[in-house]
Amino acid sequence: MNTSPQFPSAASTTVGTTLEEHIMAGQRGSPGATGDFTSLLSSVSLAVRIIHSRVRAAGLAGMLGYTGHTNVQGEAVQKLDMFANEVLCTVFERSSHCAVIGSEELDELKLSDPMGRYVVLFDPLDGSSNIDVNISIGTIFAMLRVPQGSDPADIAASLQPGRLIAAAGYAVYGSATTFVLTTGHGVHCFTLDPNIGEFFLSHPNMRCPDTGSIYSINEGNSCRWAPPVKRWNEWIKTEDKATGRPYDHRYVGSLVGDAHRTMMKGGIFAYPPDSKNPKGKLRLLYEANPMAFLFEQASGAATNGIDRILDIQPTDVHQRTPLVLGSRNDVATFRQFMLGER
Fold first, then answer.
1. Domains of the chain, with CATH numbers?
2. Residue 158: what pLDDT?
3. pTM of the model
């Protein structure tokens, strides 16, 4: 059962409410709350603001380009990747409420404070290959509770299915810096006012439309797709006014950018398996689970093409998965193609 603080509706739906006020309202509305959860959310907010400031001045601060190293994923590490990872690790370690830290940039889970009550998992800078060309990038995170009576040093205790997430969110560093958050009771979007360094509620109670008109997929991989994916791709591009087709194609190349647009406008984002990545490309713990939790809270859906993402039992820290998320009707249609029902 999700026992994270519930935010009173008045605080959650008032445009202009600060993120701090929103978080504190959740603390007051949850009997027996210790403040640990609230403190961790504040830590994320601080880290996002620090990363925002460095992203904005990356070219002037000598933060563009690669470090010359590769991470555990086999990907070239950008300077801003390393900076964002260090910022997030530092704020969580200093909070004293985080037992375990997991990052896409770390080889293994990191034991932070054995007395902490939470596991925090994050992709410090999603879409980092877009940094040098000034396309939207972001930070994705999820928080889970350490199971009662378990040893935080036990990796298995941190490998929990996404349905047990206590809070998830992402930040988008784009034309504006936005912070999208859920604690299991709706999704709310805050926009940073850079003049005063504060997030203000700009989109309360976000809802992903049941059906959209935009599809987002890397069609450069089409030669590697399985036949069901190719059939779906042709179907969604075929004209049929009765079903609103063809859909418009939009693909940024950073999950946070494509997912945020899909959350706001509806439609579908798909990164299916292919012959090059038969198990999928995106990371289950750091990308798929947080996004799936957010989309379900916003009345959307998220699957691996067939099965619900949040029901997948992780077996590895850097496990990959296919990911299909967006409007519930569009995700359901994709599933029908995968099952051979269309």
1. 10-203 (3.30.540.10), 214-338 (3.40.190.80)
2. 84
3. 0.91
